[in-house]
Amino acid sequence: MSIGVSDHEAELPMHTHRQGQLVMALRGGVMCRAEGGLWMVPRGSGVWVPGSMPHSNQVTANGRICLLFVDPDAQGLPGHCCTLSLTPMVIEMIQHLATLPLETSAEDAHTQMIAEVILGELRRMKVAAYHLPIPDDPTLSLIANRLIQAPDDRASIAGWAARVAMSERSLARLVVRKTGMTFGRWRQQLQIVLALQKLSAGATVQSVALDLGYESASAFVSMFKAAMGKPPARYIADHAGA
Description:
alpha+beta; 5-stranded antiparallel beta sheet; 10 strands
């Protein structure tokens, strides 16, 4: 099914359903929160959520998404949440399915063939780096939630260690053990996820840089380019044409 923010709430609360679900961004972007972290879905990508996993979706202003529900008995799809880079063919085929009446599509042989092709292609899709791991650890969950609420907080790891009553060394080890990243890389990944959400909603590079606590837009652009391979304006433009 295809859903627009103008037709529904921009944020769907935490919920579950039996089927697996691919949340595909047609316009704007989507941030999905589920067990283990945050997944950003810019245009041209989709986040896969296995069946029965609690999750919530937040769509950017004026965004539009397409939801593909997959029977949990389907084989070969990931057993965990992940963002998939989708090809134009898969996007078009999913949008086509969304236009068909639900009561007739399941009985149509041609529709079944399209569905099988989509499933085969999804099994081959590459996982994109739009994920912020939020481990099931109270200290790291606390830090992550506070950074999401105040992404311009530039406190050092020493400052965060003092806030959570840990030594700097212990906090650094905890982050690496639970996320596989250093504290600086973990926070940078959060900034990339939030930046993509804001840029997909139409925010300027300058405003995003300020929201994330950077002293200048150029400093933010340098960080983004080093992490994503392109400056933010080019990255969003390329995905807008996906």
